[in-house]
Task: structure prediction
Amino acid sequence: MSGDSPAASHSTDTASQQVTTEPVAPADLAWAGRVRATVLAYIALTKPRVIELLLVATIPVMLQADRGHVDIAVIAFTLIGGWLGAGSANTLNMVVDADIDKKMKRTARRPLARRAVATRNALIFGLVLWAASFAVLFFAANLLSALLVSATIVFYVGVYTMILKRRTWQNVVWGGAAGCMPTLVGWAAVTGSLSWQPIVLFLVIFFWTPPHTWALAMRYKEDYAAAGVPMLPVIATEERVTRQMLVYTWLTVLCTLVLIPATSWIYTVIAVVAGAWFVERVTKLYRDTRRGVEVKPLKVFLQSNEYLAIVFCGLAIDAVVGMQTISSYF
Result:
């Protein structure tokens, strides 16, 4: 009998209807829901949104390290290794900070704070991510990049989270160094060494971190106060906070200009224009605070993200185009 006969079609349709209309057992739905919730909880441990900084910082630096060339494989493996390392650091950070995360509205929904993941399991997960990160970078790039990521994890968890965060208002100033490491890792993955350029880019993110973080802390200072974390907005006046933010903003912009000799006019224009825009925004926040005008620090926090993305994307475009550098004219 031909497979196209009406009888065969009717039989197949009937069987299909039986399969699709058969009710799913409640137990199956509950099990699937638990699995999904568990997977999402473990993903949340890595702080996926924070890892965006890894992409913004690493790719442009790698492109600049090999101007005019794009090695997709090296970039991909470095990002994977860096993502695993950042996920490890963020997970271990949550293990240490589980007690204060419960007290803050902004962090109360984190996996350990709401007991979606056991502390022991999160610790093991973080250590496994660390080992995987080292392995990927060691075999796909080089030993230096693997060691730099490990140093980042140790510093972020051991120095910032366990020592600085709860003891001094300068916690984000020095602790922010961990977030700058992708610049060094990316350069090392391409060249196997370090030079002045990744150090300058390290300093760009280093000086950018305080105004970025303090803008957020101004919005949630009651949360930090309740958790006993001495962020600058908790212990100082808004005028002092915004003045400090302005100082670090200027240092950030000046550092971006230091890189100009190693780039072309593309990066130069972007760095100057974006820098002027960022300084103007933070200056306005400072002036409004001094005048007693109601301010919206969260807006500056978001704009700081945009500024950093603009500068590093400008560097990436400049590196890929590979035009003659400013220094070559002299």
Remarks:
- Residues 1-21 have pLDDT under 50 and may be disordered.
- The longest helix spans residues 265-291.
- Residues 84 and 132 are 7 Å apart (CA to CA).
